[in-house]
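[job 0417] fold request received: Zn-dependent alcohol dehydrogenase
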Amino acid sequence: MAKKMLKFLIPLKPIWKLIIVIVNDFMQSLVIIESGKLELKTQKLIPLKNHEVRIRVAVSAVCGSDLKIINKPIRPKIQIPGHEFAGKIIESYNNKSIVGQKVTVFPMFGCLQCEFCKNRDYRDCIRKKSLGYDLQGSFAEEIIVDERFIIKLHEKLNYEEGALLEHLCCGFRLAIEVEKWINPDANILIVGDGPMALADLRFLIQKGYSRITLIGKHKERMDCANSLGAKRILKNDEFFNLTDEFNNFFDIIIYTINKEEIIEKLSFSFNKRKIIVFPQSRISEDMMNTLSQKYGVQFGRAFAYHFDDFFAVMELIQSGEINVSELISARINMIDVPVSLPTLFDKSKIKTLILNQNF
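[job 0417] inference complete; emitting structure tokens
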């Protein structure tokens, strides 16, 4: 009986190999099929080109810019969002020795020829291409990236920590930029309670800034701000009822919300001797000119993180100075995302993670 069974199994072996090859030629990804709608699609894998690696995505973090792209896609029906992620290299065109490494990626690929790129200031390259926007993003089982922009994770970091590095780098660099302008005894106002605002708060506190007021409207996020060490936390309407107390008070305003009309309403609180605004959301050139001419506002640099900042933030996580887990409000398997979009857009959350259930 055993011999007959063996003869029966032998012809099946090549068939199973064929099935495995077919399965490995495809992956699943979340594609924006129309404004505000993601769909799980099965897509054929693309062969690698020079300098490219294929990464098996373990975790993607949802960023506010991803949500904007989902609502206003530039390439509907084919666009895959996502740029904050971590995973494992499973294939390399040039360098087989890096296969198996845990990595994340600097999500803006510069031209590598201009002066900015030579200094690894890839954000400033005018020819850069961004993951999830110009290039296909990380809301997928696999992603192809240029190996020259990969960042190897410290051995002790897990994939969730790796996926949140880019987000944390925004706050890390913001605190460095603030140091160029003011001393730790300055009065700082953070407008907004979103993930960006909380990252800024975290690293400002670490730099020794203690006189920080944050205004917002979401309980979970404001509770997080309290645990991080903000001196005062107010709801928006409470703040605007305290015009006498905050008149001519703040030296720096970190503006993280997308409602441009609010910033001019804050003018009563500007320190008329010196007021610097860090726009951690987009402020139009017209509004910046108005604030500059009318109130003497100067603008600090935001969204300016460097390639090397990733390694500095990794050290802070590894040393225990930064606790990533307190940022995570929700985890969703990639297969469930199309029916869980309200969770992605829920502004009461801090960071939502998309998990590759097949990793």
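[job 0417] notes: The longest strand covers residues 52-61. Residues 186 and 251 are 6 Å apart (CA to CA).
[job 0417] exit 0
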